[in-house]
């Protein structure tokens, strides 16, 4: 689905009030910004000239695109990337570990295909932060900043910091594709309402990522943008000219934020309609049926396939919402598409029967497909959730299900990264013997954000500006240099 609606806007006084809240003042980033990573402000690199600072960042500018796979709900590190076979049974769980293509490194037993392609990955096993609820932790994962209401489920707000794609469009609009950022299979729901951190926040709607929903519903992922045979490009341009003429008779709308935003969206849609290469990117039927089968004929699998096509077409930032609800299984326990990673109870059933088989096949196919096409060398791939799961199995009475699961756990969890110069077949960081705490350097979502922007050739310590021209740091983290060394 493509969203064209405009938000209602308040009075000038209300606008200024929201602007002040969004900025948090000129003396700091509180209350809405995240706490900077330790040493960020005092880093010697901060005093270097911009050119020298960029050259000092490993991997800077190596990526033409970034592909973020967001595993909403809290993916368990113990059953996936960081099994602990020597821990007690109530810690290690029911699944056995399996060897991978990286000597001495094991994954959970229900990821055999990912184990085979592990030599294309770096597994980061020492991610850590302090937010323990899905809404605010999703915001942290998708903006790189703590929410003002930490460990809560707040609704999206015009006071929010913008998501990565909105910042990207603000600081470096792309000329390779009509959209600088696309969110596929979204929005991310917690569990049935949108999580904050997925849109423009205190920036205007004109920097919103394109939101694409369920790509399995029709042949073309954006059916509203399908070319009509009776409307060739020359007639399409004529209609654009007519629209421009009519707009001159509505000058009372000039400068109105809603009208300006709508015009931007119309312009983007027109560019897609009038550019065959752009339209073709959304046509999944152009892919060989066998490849579509390998990705999986379900929402997550086809979303990954669309993401590869968008990367191929030149989209700078694509985010795949792996599962649109963090725990839709509460309403639809028989529908695998509905399952999210929030497995408080029935974790082993949910992972074994619904979540891991699809994740293993689709994500492995995506990595192989990118690599075969030569796209992995120029695409930074990040797969992460908002946190991990607790190193203790227990039945929780307040949640659906009859067998034990794991609670939320943010003290340590795992993510994976690949491509654009990231080391292949490596493990970065380590957790303790129960996967409960890091025993090496900790990394946070703010560091992932800095790494993504640096990979795109954007100084993560640069700034973007709001409507009042107040500066905000692009990120509050440090690039993860160790990924490249």
List the helices and strands and how they pair.
Elements: H1 12-23, H2 50-55, E1 65-70, H3 89-92, E2 97-99, E3 106-108, H4 112-116, E4 122-127, H5 134-143, H6 164-171, E5 181-184, E6 210-212, H7 233-247, H8 257-274, H9 276-281, H10 289-295, H11 299-313, E7 317-321, H12 347-372, E8 379-384, E9 388-389, E10 408-409, E11 413-418, E12 426-428, H13 445-455, E13 463-465, E14 471-473
Parallel strand pairs: 1-7, 1-8, 4-12, 5-6, 5-7
Antiparallel strand pairs: 2-3, 4-11, 8-11, 9-10, 13-14
Helix pairs in contact: 11-12
Structural overview:
This protein has 2 domains: 12-221 and 289-483, Alkaline Phosphatase, subunit A (3-Layer(aba) Sandwich), CATH 3.40.720; 223-281, no CATH class. The chain has 13 helices and 14 strands. The chain has helices at residues 12-23, 50-55, 89-92, 112-116, 134-143, 164-171, 233-247, 257-274, 276-281, 289-295, 299-313, 347-372, 445-455, and strands spanning 65-70, 97-99, 106-108, 122-127, 181-184, 210-212, 317-321, 379-384, 388-389, 408-409, 413-418, 426-428, 463-465, 471-473. Helix 11 (299-313) runs parallel beside helix 12 (347-372). The protein is globular. The two termini are 41 Å apart. Residues 1-47 have low confidence and may be disordered.
Task: Summarize it.
The chain has 485 residues and is of the alpha/beta class. It contains 13 helices and 14 strands. An eight-stranded mixed β-sheet has the order 6-5-7-1-8-11-4-12, sandwiched between helices. Strands 2-3 form a two-stranded antiparallel ribbon. Strands 9-10 form a two-stranded antiparallel sheet.
């Amino acid at each position: 689905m493509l969203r064209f609606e405009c938000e209602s806007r308040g009075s000038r006084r209300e606008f200024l009030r929201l602007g002040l809240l969004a900025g948090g003042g000129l003396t700091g980033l509180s209350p809405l910004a995240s706490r900077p990573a330790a040493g960020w402000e005092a880093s010697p690199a901060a005093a270097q000239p911009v050119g020298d600072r960029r050259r000092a960042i490993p991997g800077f500018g190596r990526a033409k695109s970034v592909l973020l796979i967001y595993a909403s709900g809290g993916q368990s590190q113990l059953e996936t990337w960081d099994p602990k076979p020597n821990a007690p049974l109530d810690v290690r769980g029911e699944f056995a570990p399996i060897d991978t293509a990286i000597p001495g490194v094991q994954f959970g037993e229900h990821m055999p295909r990912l184990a085979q392609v592990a030599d294309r990955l770096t597994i980061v096993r020492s991610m850590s932060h302090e937010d323990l609820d899905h809404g605010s932790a999703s915001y942290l994962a998708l903006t790189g900043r703590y929410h003002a209401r930490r460990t809560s489920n707040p609704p999206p707000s015009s006071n929010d910091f913008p998501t990565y794609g909105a910042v990207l469009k603000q600081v470096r609009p792309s000329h390779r594709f009509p959209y600088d950022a696309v969110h596929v299979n979204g929005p991310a729901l917690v569990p049935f309402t949108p999580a904050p951190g997925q849109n423009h926040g205190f920036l205007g709607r004109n920097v919103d990522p394109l939101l694409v929903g369920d790509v399995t519903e029709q042949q073309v992922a954006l059916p509203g943008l399908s070319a009509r045979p009776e409307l060739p490009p020359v007639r399409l341009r004529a209609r654009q000219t007519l629209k421009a003429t009519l707009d001159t008779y509505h000058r009372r709308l000039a400068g109105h934020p809603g009208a300006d935003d709508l015009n931007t969206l119309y312009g983007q849609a027109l560019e897609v309609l009038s550019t065959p290469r752009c339209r073709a990117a959304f046509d999944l039927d152009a892919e060989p049926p066998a490849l579509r089968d390998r990705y999986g004929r379900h929402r997550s699998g086809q979303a990954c396939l669309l993401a590869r096509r968008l990367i191929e077409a030149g989209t700078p930032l694509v985010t795949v919402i792996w599962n649109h609800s963090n725990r839709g299984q509460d309403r639809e326990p028989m529908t695998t598409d509905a399952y999210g990673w929030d497995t408080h109870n029935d974790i082993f059933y949910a992972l074994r029967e619904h979540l891991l088989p699809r994740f293993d096949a689709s994500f492995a196919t995506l990595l192989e497909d990118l690599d075969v096409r030569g796209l992995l060398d120029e695409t930074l791939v990040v797969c992460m959730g908002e946190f991990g799961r607790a190193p203790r199995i227990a039945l929780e009475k307040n949640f659906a299900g009859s067998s034990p699961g794991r609670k939320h756990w943010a003290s340590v969890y795992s993510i994976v990264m690949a491509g654009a110069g990231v080391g292949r077949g490596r493990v970065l960081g380590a957790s303790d013997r129960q996967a409960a705490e890091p025993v090496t350097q900790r990394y946070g979502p703010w560091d992932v954000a800095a790494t993504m922007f640096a990979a795109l050739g954007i100084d993560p310590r640069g700034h973007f500006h709001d409507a009042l021209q107040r500066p905000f740091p692009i990120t509050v983290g440090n690039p993860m240099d160790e990924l490249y060394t």
